[in-house]
């Protein structure tokens, strides 16, 4: 019997959220450390909104945008765009799943569960389809 050659193992895909943190001249304990920048990008990919991702790492939305606009933040900005798209894709997928497969909620009467209710939310599907994915923010020349 002839031996079947095995395909070489595929090289691992690089992390789409990998980036070079923005180099800062001074890093305060409450500022944008490299760790906080990485945590922000991870939170942005999970949540899909800058406001909540910034809050998750103890920063403001304005501080995040200011960091993104700094000279030398190109790698951070590229990871930001990828993370924002990932967050949008996740939210869109969840919305479509709930709209198409519905959700089951418990029904209570006098404090006791008496059954469940399964319902579909087509408005959610229409809202998800009507929304557009985030557009990468262009850096403004000053």
Q: Could you explain how this protein is built, in words?
A:
It is a single chain. This protein has 142 residues and is mainly α. It is built from five helices and two strands. It has a domain of 97 residues: Orthogonal Bundle (Arc Repressor Mutant, subunit A), CATH 1.10.10. Helices cover 46% and strands 11% of the residues. The protein has a two-stranded antiparallel sheet. The chain is extended, with a radius of gyration of 22 Å. α1 crosses α2, α1 packs parallel to α4 and α4 packs antiparallel against α5. The mean pLDDT is 86. The protein starts with 33 loop residues before the first helix and ends in a 12-residue tail after the last helix. The longest helix is centred in the middle third of the chain and has 28 residues. Keywords: Membrane, Transmembrane, Transmembrane helix.
How would you summarize this macromolecular structure in one to three sentences?
By secondary structure, the protein is mostly helical. The protein has a domain of 97 residues: Arc Repressor Mutant, subunit A (Orthogonal Bundle), CATH 1.10.10. The protein has five helices and two strands, in the order ααααββα.
